[in-house]
């Protein structure tokens, strides 16, 4: 589950000031290249066009999280994405959607995978969802919640593993993320967290194998079509 504590943007004030017209006064030389890259999405007219209800994974159903539970960004242009973070909701699908739509919750993930394999997207991948309880990890990752409970092995169904592996394989393919345990991690492995998900019943070997199989399972171009 996402961190309850609000993952607010501590640089917001300074960035807003700079975008408000102080850039020229400060002098662009004074700004690190990285800082500029993080600034540009706030400038009018440079944001990527967004289509209402669009999803990043074919077949996912769109249900918008509250805009208070993520930060608009333009990944991977402003922040590169090199991690997938696996979560468990500690509850049912409905309650997970409910809290992610609650502006007071302060957290949301990009996706929820249900027991039957259905996938819901709540935050676009280009945006920074507050799911890891660690600002840097939020900025560099895509968060996937899984319906269920860490202490119940029965939460993690074949359909869930298969669907989640397809989703993670697609994310890794899009951003060039290596399919290994350094880059596909549990919430428990995020520095500074006190969360334990996905817990001991989550089968990492099985999951990574499925992700790898899906990654290499792309249809090959037939010789006659060349
Ligand atoms: Zn979590």
Automatic annotation (TrEMBL):
Residues 70-199 form the N-acetylmuramoyl-L-alanine amidase domain. Signal peptide: none annotated. It catalyses: Hydrolyzes the link between N-acetylmuramoyl residues and L-amino acid residues in certain cell-wall glycopeptides. It holds the Pfam family Amidase_2. GO terms for molecular function: N-acetylmuramoyl-L-alanine amidase activity. It comes from Streptomyces shenzhenensis. Keywords: Cell wall biogenesis/degradation, Hydrolase. This is N-acetylmuramoyl-L-alanine amidase. One of its GO terms (biological process) is peptidoglycan turnover. Its EC number is 3.5.1.28. It comes from the Bacteria.
